[in-house]
Amino acid sequence: MSERNPLSTPGRRSWLPKVAVDSETFGVFAESFARFMGTAKFLVYMTVFVIVWVAINLIGLFGLKWDPYPFILLNLFFSTQASYSAPLILLAQNRQELRDKLSLDEDRRVAQQSRADMDFLAREIAAIRMHLGELATRDFVRGELRSELRELAERLERADEKKESQ
């Protein structure tokens, strides 16, 4: 007995031929095609193409008239172009979305690292400030030495006075 995939899992179509397509190359092609379709140059080319097509088929330039008035063949070309354009544009958008996600993830990682670095530096600065508070400054040492010198001078004076009084 063969095991069947559940309906939620897409199955492989064995009757379709396997086609090897480099997704990166095709993705680059889709992006460049989608980018080109969004330009004024593309609109001008399409407009010129339609005008020439209609002119040839209405007037019969060069003795050609292969698509009479309702221009069914021209509509078929437009439908075919639209059916290929939409998936190519969606593919290009998906690739751009993936690039944006990767960029956002990298920005998030850099921001987290920056935050961790800033927190570390803030702790280091706080520790330095605490240690500086415990260190004796030059003015503090001078003041302490002056008071010790005064006390020493007073003791010497008292000692001299004691000697003289004896």
UniProtKB/TrEMBL annotation:
The chain crosses the membrane at residues 42-63, 69-92. It holds the Pfam family DUF1003. InterPro entries: DUF1003. Keywords: Membrane, Transmembrane, Transmembrane helix. This is DUF1003 domain-containing protein. It comes from Tessaracoccus lubricantis.
